[in-house]
Amino acid sequence: MQTYLGSFLSVCLISTLAAAQSDTAYRRGIHAVDYAVSIDLPDSGSWINGDATLTLRRTAAVDTVILDLRQLHVQRVTIDGGTTRFARTDSTIGIPLPRGVGPIFKIRVVYDGAVTDGLIAHKDSAGRWTYFGDNWPNRLRYWIPSLDHPSEKATISWTVTAAIGETVIANGAFVENRTLPMAERRRTLARWRESSRLRRT
To answer: Cβ contacts of residue 3 below 8 Å, gap of 6+?
Structure first.
């Protein structure tokens, strides 16, 4: 087991190779293709700022996408770059699809809030804040807008910003790690990219 000098985030969203995706969608007529997730972690506590872009494929004549996201505050939603309205419940985001949207399209959700599950935030034995993604079977919805079901396989990229000294570990290939110059405090940014179509564990 590795020892880390600072607190860390271990993102375990997808890992095991899956069989071909079923024609039966978790949400009728909509399948996930890819997630591009940016998470800004706090120096302490469970409040995150998130920015997730989902690439989705429409396979039937549906006019609304329903994403899972519990409790967190949704700031704005866009479809293919254009701001759109949405309907929020305590557990879903309903997003009407405009006419003319293609069979492959992107939905971006910018959000924030205190996470209560999925992303486990706690202090370790040395008093350092650590963050660990524990999403099985359908706990991703507590911190990432998603089609949160084991049948929905998708690739994913992670961009995580955190306090200097934190170490970020995620699935996939390591892309970069660099320090961001900021006016009031410096942050570290890490990127990881999963290139295979896998299922979440």
So the answer is: none
